[in-house]
Specification:
heterodimer, A: about 160 residues, alpha+beta, Aldehyde Oxidoreductase, domain 3, 4-stranded mixed sheet, 4-stranded antiparallel sheet, about 30% strand, globular, B: about 90 residues, Ubiquitin-like (UB roll), 5-stranded mixed sheet, 3 helices
């Protein structure tokens, strides 16, 4: 039953935070993998705020407190089961985010690289369409362009994980 | 009649004009879809916010549900647009 890479059947740790503050990507990777000898691959995804060709002054991220954390945790736990991950971390910010700043971080750890790549991708695809966050754009001319529309491409990205 | 807490987000919140409220629901409101139809009768702001019913997402006690889901003994029902995080 025990594989060469997972001598202990300890549950894979899931860290989820929804916060206004910035985060330290390197510190989060270290936190997930420090002291572990069963992890062979760590994949991270960082989502940053684009300036949209110079017109955007900031994004405003609204979220549903409580449900946002719960949904992200559910998605991470599903990824751990599905891809046999050794651990996952997801951090999503809310409030005002300036161009160039970090919005979201996903880290997936596994024994071999493909599961970590797939796990990080799976978490992001579900997070974008199921975690209750909404982006509003504020423009440099002082106006609010309004709420970002959901993209069909995001639904398509999620659907590729559907099991037939 | 029963009272539930409704919470709204993003442009649903902005168009309705409040972030949350306690509303008494008539017994004829059984499903999430019934709730949306009922709210649309509460005034122009509600009608504008919920005009395109099919895009409105619903969560009952912080879990996603379809419009045909019975509200049951829901304590908190959230209405919001498609999500755009990440």
């Amino acid at each position: 039953m025990a594989s060469d890479s997972a001598p202990l059947s300890a549950p894979a740790p899931v860290t989820v935070r929804v916060q206004a503050e910035d985060f330290d990507t390197a510190a989060e990777i270290e936190s997930l993998s420090a002291g572990r000898t069963d992890i062979g691959a760590v994949v991270t995804f960082s989502g940053l705020c684009r300036e949209e060709k110079g017109v955007l002054s900031a994004l405003e991220l609204e979220h549903y407190p409580g449900m946002a954390e719960a949904e992200i945790r559910r998605i991470c736990e599903e990824a751990i089961t599905r891809f046999d991950l050794q651990g996952a971390t997801a951090i999503h910010r809310f409030g005002r985010i300036d161009p160039g700043a970090r919005i979201v971080l996903v880290i997936a750890a596994s024994t071999h690289r493909q599961a970590a790549f797939d796990g990080a991708s799976f978490i992001m695809d579900y997070l974008k369409t199921a975690a209750p966050f909404w982006k509003k754009e504020h423009l440099k001319d002082g106006t609010a362009r309004g709420w970002v529309s959901a993209q069909d491409a995001d639904d398509t990205a999620r659907e590729r994980w559907a099991r037939g | 009649m029963r009272e539930v807490r409704l919470v709204y987000f993003a442009w649903v919140r902005e168009r309705i004009g409040v972030g949350d409220e306690i509303v008494s629901l008539p017994d004829t409101v059984v499903t999430a879809g019934d709730l949306i139809a009922f709210l649309k009768t509460r005034g122009e702001d509600y009608a504008a916010a919920l005009e395109h019913e099919n895009v409105i997402r619903v969560a009952i006690d912080q879990e996603h549900v379809e419009h045909d889901e019975p509200l049951g003994a829901a304590r908190e029902i959230a209405l919001f647009p498609p999500m755009t995080g990440g």
